[in-house]
Design a protein that fits this description.
The chain has helices at 39-56, 110-121, 132-138, 154-160, 185-198, 200-209, 226-230, 235-246, 254-261, 265-276, 280-298, 303-309, 315-330, and strands at 27-33, 61-66, 72-74, 80-82, 95-100, 125-130, 146-147, 165-166, 171-174, 177-180. The chain is α/β, with parallel strands linked by helices. The chain has 2 domains: 27-209, Rossmann fold (3-Layer(aba) Sandwich), CATH 3.40.50; 226-330, Orthogonal Bundle (Arc Repressor Mutant, subunit A). α1 (39-56) packs parallel to α5 (185-198). Pfam families: DJ-1_PfpI, HTH_18.
């Protein structure tokens, strides 16, 4: 651990009222930003704290930033955030959130992981946003816990950490561990925490400040339902689509899918062409290839392991399917 004991800078707050004797002690929130972190998720987490300070007229929250290597850390869009706490420094915090995007499976920084474990031992609640839960798991901080993370990272995470229960919710608060799927779900998470800390009235005021007219609960789903995503209404087609997405490792035979829809295979093929503009087999194949691409980008699995996880007999069969799709896209 470093001997750096410098206090993190406390950000100026607009329109603050004079301190009152009854003002609560401010909570300190740390943000550990991993290079290429998602700016939207970070902003959705930090801005509600600023708004809570402004609307309450006192400093309810203060925050600091850290990043591997220190200095200025760049978001995925190139915007830089200046850090004010060094990784390894003694830093006080009530909550610390790790915000990561890109490919968190490839990130490895033992010194950062050790520092996070130290913060947890000293009583800080540890949280992860977007791909941040992946790094908490790498640090051994999610053992025996339930967590969520961005849906794009879930397949690779489940392959690597089968012992950790993953729920596809907006956020999960489990005692001294908090995980969030990212994006604007970070706003809903912070509104929940503000409500717990200072009451539902202030949380509602912050939500209204950001034109967020419905505070979503943590267990709300991350993604739009199949009806919205694919623009289909036929319940038979929706049942089959759900079965396909739930069975990529061991694809369901066409006859079984038709039985699920209570139609013949020929009728099911027609439903797919009319509703989605492509046949049943091609749609299922594209789902499996998309998952294979995700695993290849975000996990350390071998090609053979990725093939097995997406219903292909071997890596060669997967490669042939990828080449065919590429040729079709160019045609």
């Amino acid at each position: 651990m470093s001997d750096d004991t410098s206090e993190p800078s406390h950000h100026a707050r607009p329109r603050r009222k004079p301190a009152r004797a009854e003002d609560p002690a401010p909570r300190t929130v740390g943000f550990v930003l991993v290079p290429d972190f998602p700016l939207m998720a970070y902003t959705a987490a930090v801005e509600p704290l600023r708004a809570a300070n402004t609307l309450s007229g006192c400093e309810l929250y203060r925050w600091w930033h850290a990043a591997p290597g220190g200095g200025v850390v760049q978001a995925s869009n190139g915007l830089g955030i200046l850090t004010d706490v060094a990784v390894g420094a003694r830093a006080s915090a009530d909550r610390v959130f790790v915000c990561a995007g890109g490919n968190p499976a490839e990130f490895d920084d033992p010194s950062l992981f050790a520092w996070l474990r130290g913060l947890a031992r000293h009583g800080a609640t540890l949280g992860g946003i977007s791909g941040g839960p992946y790094l908490l798991a790498r640090a051994g901080l999610l053992s025996g816990r339930r967590c969520t993370l961005h849906w794009e990272h879930v397949p690779a995470f489940e392959e690597r950490y089968p012992e950790i229960e993953v729920v596809r919710s907006l956020f999960e608060i489990q005692g001294d561990r908090i995980t969030c799927s990212g994006g604007i779900a970070a706003l809903d998470l912070m509104l929940d925490l503000i409500g717990r800390d200072h009451g539902a009235g202030l949380a509602a005021g912050v939500s209204d400040w950001f034109l967020h007219n419905q505070i979503r609960e943590g267990l709300s789903p991350q993604r739009m339902d199949l009806r919205q995503r694919f623009g289909v209404r036929d319940p038979r087609l929706l049942r089959v689509l759900a079965a396909m997405e739930a069975n990529l490792e061991a694809p369901v035979p066409r006859v079984a899918l038709a039985d699920l829809a209570r139609v013949s295979v020929r009728q099911l093929e027609r439903l797919f062409r009319e509703g989605l503009g492509r046949g049943l087999h091609r749609h299922y194949l594209h789902l499996r290839l998309d998952r294979a691409h995700q695993l290849g980008r975000e996990s350390a699995l071998s090609r053979a392991e990725i093939a097995a996880a997406t219903g292909f007999a071997n890596a060669d069969e997967l490669a042939r399917a990828e080449r065919r799709r590429h040729r079709q896209a160019e045609a």
